[in-house]
């Protein structure tokens, strides 16, 4: 097991954006959680980039089940981004734009079992969503079905944590104490024997290839929304939307966070949305809030 490689994956799971350039803070590592579910990142079959300098949208459609078309499409858009970023060096009016992720999988972490009052990842569901961008993980996700992928990846991370302890008895103050408890509880509560579980890269081979691997999986929420979304290099740009409010709603949908966002806008004794409260949160009128949900996420109005 390449310990440095697993460490980089863990850094993405604790949402450390700077992990490639420095050591992930202990304050983040102590809140590492097991993976609960995994889904495809490219199921929209489209990537886009708005070039603000040329005032032009560049896009490519692809088939998520055709790796060549997916990679060629992303490479094309990233090439356009490179061209734009090169011009930014000579023009201070714009900021550089990040590449489209090339090997991404959407991850949802488990809800923590302990120290929920201090764990920053227990505040809401949005804090449990991650994107892992790694070629080896992606390739494993292109072979294994969701359940096998999750179990084996959790075992791989758990094995790494145990190796780091070098057989020492940990106390609650140790950085890895709570993460190890979380992983052990996940396996026990799932009825899975850790010792009988293979490591991800030992198991991800043709013998276990699934007809519906992780990279094709779509979560139920995405299936229930009306919006035809795409992966955008600069999703916050106003060019994409008729209004800032619509842009916010669409961004929440595309990131899988809309349901969590509206969770505190429901009436206490019923699940129905308090449209007035949501409108205040979105900084728009009640009518606009309801119209946007009717257009993009009508399932929220059916509750």
User: Taking Cα atoms only, what radius of gyration do you get, to the nearest Å?
Assistant: 21 Å
Number of strands: 6
| Protein structure class | alpha+beta
Largest sheet: 3 strands, antiparallel
The chain-level mean pLDDT equals 85
**Distance from first to last alpha carbon:** 47 Å
Spatial order of the strands in the main sheet?
A: 1-4-5
> What does the overall shape look like?
globular
In DSSP terms (H or I, runs of 4 or more residues), the helix count works out at 13
Low-confidence stretches: 122-126
Topology:
Layout lengths: L2 H11 L12 H4 L5 E6 L5 E6 L4 E6 L5 H22 L15 E6 L19 E5 L1 H7 L4 H20 L11 H13 L10 H4 L16 H5 L6 E2 L11 H11 L3 H4 L13 H8 L3 H11 L2 H4 L1
Parallel strand pairs: 2-6
Antiparallel strand pairs: 1-4, 2-3, 4-5
Helix pairs in contact: 5-6, 9-12, 11-12
């Amino acid at each position: 097991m390449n310990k440095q490689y697993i460490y980089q994956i863990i850094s993405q799971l604790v949402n450390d954006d700077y992990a490639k350039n420095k050591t992930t803070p202990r304050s983040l590592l102590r809140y590492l959680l097991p993976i609960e579910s995994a889904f495809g990142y490219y199921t929209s079959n489209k990537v886009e980039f708005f070039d603000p300098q040329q005032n032009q949208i560049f896009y490519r459609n692809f088939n998520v089940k055709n790796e060549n078309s997916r990679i060629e499409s992303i490479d094309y858009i990233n090439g356009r981004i490179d061209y734009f970023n090169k011009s930014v060096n000579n023009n201070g009016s714009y900021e550089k734009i990040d590449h489209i992720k090339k090997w991404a999988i959407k991850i949802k972490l488990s809800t923590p079992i302990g120290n929920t009052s201090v764990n920053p990842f227990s505040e809401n569901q949005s804090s449990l969503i991650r994107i892992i961008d790694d070629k080896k993980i992606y390739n494993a996700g292109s072979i294994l079905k969701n359940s096998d992928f999750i179990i084996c990846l959790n075992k791989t991370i758990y094995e790494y944590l145990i190796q780091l302890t070098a057989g020492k008895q940990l106390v609650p103050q140790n950085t890895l104490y709570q993460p190890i408890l979380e992983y052990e509880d996940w396996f026990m509560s799932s009825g899975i024997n850790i010792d009988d579980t293979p490591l991800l890269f030992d198991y991800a081979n043709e013998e276990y290839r699934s007809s519906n691997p992780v990279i094709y999986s779509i979560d139920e929420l995405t299936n229930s929304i009306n919006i035809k979304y795409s992966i955008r290099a600069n999703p916050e740009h106003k060019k994409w939307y008729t209004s800032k409010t619509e842009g916010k709603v669409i961004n929440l949908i595309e990131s899988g966070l809309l349901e969590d966002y509206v969770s505190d806008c429901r009436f206490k004794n019923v699940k129905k949305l308090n449209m007035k409260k949501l409108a205040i949160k979105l900084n728009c009128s009640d009518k606009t809030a309801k119209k946007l949900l009717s257009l993009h996420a009508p399932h929220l109005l059916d509750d």
